[in-house]
């Protein structure tokens, strides 16, 4: 009887283990099939991403080739015409030298022919090289894509490494993200309007500093500036920009709230702030407004507005406004750009590091531009800042102001 009990217990245990083994085998098969399916999906997505990058590469290289062909066609055509003109004039000069001095009629005919050739073709040097080649900005666009891709890959990898948290923590993070998106101080809150008179209480009278102006910028008093083709013979100055068509405002800001306005008259223009101690001798790719950690700007590129900071660009959907208001708030470590119309201020973008860095990276997809703000933007306010202006195209023209009748009582600080 005792032996029978033991055998029965063994059989029951074997049945349990058999059921467990079957369940484990199903689990192993499920994991393998899920991993295989996920691997296939990831490979497909990487293939699609590579195709997108390949297509972008093809478009950019085609853009460079097209720009090169167009400009070369014009330049080579000018060169060919000038060479033909020189050849014809050379032949006319040779014919003229062979006319006997006594033959006044033939001499005058040949001289008139040479003069007519010169007048018909025109004179003077051919067009010089363009100040900027449109296709040379291709590397900037690709660099921006590369930087955004690098930030996105790093953030998504952090998310993958953080997998395994409980659902309560995930739900809590999601709730925090929703709350932040509704925060009135959040940079995502772009719908506000405020009366212009409120900002005039913080009006700062900006005067352009001629000792910082690049040689291709012509100043009109202390309020207007235009980019020109011929360099201006400015005196030597250690604060003058040498590689970028930029100019700063006089005086440096280090505390309080400041507000000023800029009228965009023509061309591609960037307006913002730059650290007082930033070197004006930095090369073009690092010295431009918004392409480094020492400056930030709003750019109008002839088609749309965008924000630049630390080499990253954030496009804005708002339409063009000729009058732009800039508000710098040291207490909040914020920089805000407004479109000014009919006494109303429409928010374009408020730049500020997030109030709190989220502990969980699973809350929402990472915005590379906001991530860059969170990491570096507050550092701007550890420096003395100056109003800064970058005139990107050869026809760019801007004017500081208005702030005239409405600011009679505001003293220049």
Query: How many domains, as an integer?
Result: 2
Number of strands: 14
The computed structural class is alpha+beta
- Measured by DSSP, the beta-strand proportion falls in 15-25%
Architecture of the largest domain, CATH level 2?
Answer: Sandwich
Number of helices: 7
Q: Enumerate the spans where pLDDT stays under 50 for 5 or more consecutive residues.
A: 163-191, 356-363, 404-413
CATH topology of the largest domain: Jelly Rolls
Strand order of the largest sheet: 1-12-11-10-5-14-3-2
Q: What Rg is obtained from the alpha carbons, in whole angstroms?
A: 33 Å
Reading off the top of the CATH hierarchy, the class of the largest domain is best stated as Mainly Beta
State the shape: flat
User: How do the SSEs run, as a string of H and E?
Assistant: HHHHEHEEEEEHEEEEEEHEE
Task: Report, as a whole number of angstroms, the end-to-end distance.
Answer: 106 Å
Mean pLDDT: 80
Q: What is the helical fraction, as a range of percent? A: 40-55%
Instruction: Please summarize the sheet with the most strands.
Output: 8 strands, antiparallel
- CATH H level, superfamily name of the largest domain: SPRY domain
Structure description:
This is RING-type E3 ubiquitin transferase. Residues 186-407 form the B30.2/SPRY domain. The protein has 413 residues and is α+β, with helices and mostly antiparallel strands. Helix 1 packs antiparallel against helix 2. Helix content is 42%, strand content 19%. The chain has helices at 2-97, 104-121, 138-161, 167-181, 196-200, 284-287, 368-380, and strands at residues 193-195, 217-220, 224-227, 246-248, 257-266, 269-275, 295-300, 305-309, 312-315, 323-329, 334-341, 344-351, 385-391, 397-400. The chain folds into two domains: 1-98; 196-355 and 368-407, Jelly Rolls (Sandwich).
């Amino acid at each position: 009887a005792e032996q029978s009990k033991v055998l029965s217990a063994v059989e029951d245990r074997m049945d349990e283990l058999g059921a467990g083994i079957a369940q484990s085998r199903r689990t192993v098969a499920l994991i393998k099939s899920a991993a295989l399916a996920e691997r296939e999906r990831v490979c497909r997505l990487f293939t699609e991403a590579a195709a997108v990058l390949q297509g972008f590469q093809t478009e950019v290289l085609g853009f460079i080739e097209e720009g090169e062909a167009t400009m070369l066609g014009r330049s080579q055509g000018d060169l060919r015409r000038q060479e033909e003109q020189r050849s014809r004039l050379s032949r006319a000069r040779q014919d003229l030298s062979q006319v006997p001095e006594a033959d006044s009629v033939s001499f005058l005919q040949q001289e008139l022919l040479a003069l007519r050739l010169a007048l018909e073709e025109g004179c003077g040097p051919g067009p010089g090289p363009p100040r900027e080649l449109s296709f040379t900005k291709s590397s900037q666009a690709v660099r921006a894509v590369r930087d955004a891709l690098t930030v996105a890959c790093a953030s998504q990898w952090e998310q993958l490494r953080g997998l395994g948290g409980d659902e309560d923590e995930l739900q809590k993070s999601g709730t925090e993200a929703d709350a932040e998106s509704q925060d009135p101080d959040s940079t995502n809150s772009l719908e506000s309007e405020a009366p212009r008179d409120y900002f005039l209480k913080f009006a700062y009278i900006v005067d352009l500093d001629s000792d910082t102006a690049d040689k291709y910028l012509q100043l009109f008093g202390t309020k207007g500036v235009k980019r020109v083709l011929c360099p201006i013979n400015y005196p030597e100055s250690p604060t003058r920009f040498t590689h970028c068509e930029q100019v700063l405002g006089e005086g440096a800001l280090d505390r309080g709230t400041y507000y000023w306005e800029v009228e965009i008259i023509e061309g591609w223009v960037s307006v913002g702030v730059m650290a007082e101690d930033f070197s004006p001798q930095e090369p073009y790719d690092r010295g431009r407004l918004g392409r480094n950690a020492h400056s930030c700007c709003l750019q109008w590129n002839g088609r749309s507005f965008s924000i630049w900071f630390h080499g990253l660009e954030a496009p804005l959907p708002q339409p063009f406004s000729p009058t732009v208001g800039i508000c710098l708030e040291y207490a909040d470590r914020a920089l805000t750009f407004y479109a000014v119309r009919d006494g109303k201020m429409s928010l374009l973008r408020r730049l500020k590091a997030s109030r709190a860095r989220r502990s969980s990276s699973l809350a929402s997809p990472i915005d590379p531009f906001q991530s860059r703000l969170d990491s570096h933007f507050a550092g701007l306010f550890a420096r003395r800042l100056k109003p800064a202006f970058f005139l990107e195209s050869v026809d760019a023209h801007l004017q500081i102001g208005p702030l005239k009748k409405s600011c009679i009582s505001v003293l220049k600080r």
